[in-house]
Amino acid sequence: MNKTKYIFITGGVVSSLGKGIAASSIGALLEARGLNITMQKLDPYINVDPGTMNPFQHGEVFVTDDGAETDLDLGHYERFTSLSLTKKNNLTSGQVYDAVINNERKGTYLGKTVQVIPHITDEIKKRIIEASDGKDVAIIEIGGTVGDIESLPFLEAIRQFKLDKGKDNVLYIHLTLVPFIKTADELKTKPTQHSVKELRAIGIEPSIIICRADRVLPQDIREKIALFCNVEADAVITAKDEESIYDVPLSLHKEKLDSKIIEYLNIWAKSPDLNEWTNISETLKTLKNLVTIAVVGKYVNLKESYKSLNESLIHGGLANNVSVNIKYINSEDFEADDWKERLKELEGCSGILVPGGFGSRGINGMLKAINYARSSNIPYFGICLGMQLMTVEYARNVLGLKEANSYEFDEITPDPVISIMDDQKDIGNMGGTMRLGAYPCVISKNTLAYQIYYKNNKKYSADNKNSVKLNHDGNISISERHRHRFEFNNKYREKFKASGFVFSGVSPDDKLIEICELKDHPWYIGCQFHPEFKSSPLYPHPLFKEFIAAALRYSNALIGVQTKVKTKNKNKVKDKKRKTAAA
Questions:
Q1: Is 441 among the catalytic positions?
Q2: pLDDT at 128 over 70
Q3: Which entry of 384, 441, 516, 527 is annotated as an active-site residue?
Q4: What does each C-alpha distance from 472 to 225, 445, 476, 477, 516 come to in angstroms?
């Protein structure tokens, strides 16, 4: 193919319809047809990136290999496709306006009046073309809902694309809602009609309409939408609610969405190979076991805050044929006066995970959960902050450093086992000043971390986004994504090691701790990086896969003990009855 084809995906009626999942599924389907794709998210907010935004408001901040803090939809793109995205794949209004204003200050526009059209729209188009260079198909999702004032410059820019690139090279897909009104016992198409009308009013005429609904749309409803929205009836696609987001590619393929895209863009492509997605879908429906994982964090009221984490736990379950029940616990619950009683919430769990986060709120509650996991021999997984607090808890309760803390929470602690990097001590801007993106890590032999990565080496490395390399000295080299500002303080390294605490993964220069674990514990691991950013249903991350495997072993052992106790009690009752009868 000589020219890149462009697919623009917009959304209407309400937010949270699943544009990101729809776009990701389209990406998966086109890759399954042998096409070389890329994906991009255009976000209308003025923030330069979501790095300084509250997780309660925006949700998770996803991190790419090159250190970009991006929208969480890029996580979906990577999980559904083979893509390893970069900062080019997420564009915000803030980035666009910042670039245009800087150009104006430099005199780039030669004294012209700088306006939304053409300067802002030209900058948007330029960024889309740069991100799409050399690809067969570029799938671009426009954030927000049609009608929002913030997204108008983006919509105007993609309207111009059809004029610039030709109608055979540009396709508009609109995602909308077709609600079912119970009292009328009817599906209603009016919201879709109004949404498309709004889109057409600004010059964009969608060729395909994806309708989010709780059921498959009947033919008469499709024909009605087609008639009033000026599309072909077979271009009205049902996006039915599914049990799992990983069923969506197959669902949209069944609706022949990928065939319609191929037809409209006049692309030659092979028949799709969807065997892997079929296997995932079938596995999800036949999971044999169940484990409950407690996620003890500070943003648990909004599941989007831990989106990649949630999905990675599901991936770990898939790899072990296990259904994962994620039990979200607000760490502040363990700071209340009745915290000992509340801590019983952890008793029925097969694993405890403390995720990343920032700020001192809820920290003491996390420490209590970590102490419970360590002392009760429950599988524990600490990620970023969860690893840092793992060392603080150990310092206080094992090493006797009662006032040990992280410099982030207590700048005058006598024992800052977690401290700040020297080049971070004078922070001017909060955004983009952390250790961000992919960094190498060397894992030592004879450690649990080594066993985990070595065991999963071939399968995990089959995905070109991930690499596990065996070094000549027998150690393993990996690369993982980071998002943090504080590090383990090396002044305490020997004291920890002497007591059985293991630093199994370090930076190549041995200056930074990346992975730590405990010798005398079934499964107790913390990592400074975010493994959830490199996990997918096709290639579950080794740490999540083995964490769920450990949780399953713990659960089975617990069931075995409970069964023995019940049998013993039953036998006692029987013996008592026999003695009573004999008497």
A1: no
A2: yes
A3: 384
A4: 63, 12, 9, 10, 23
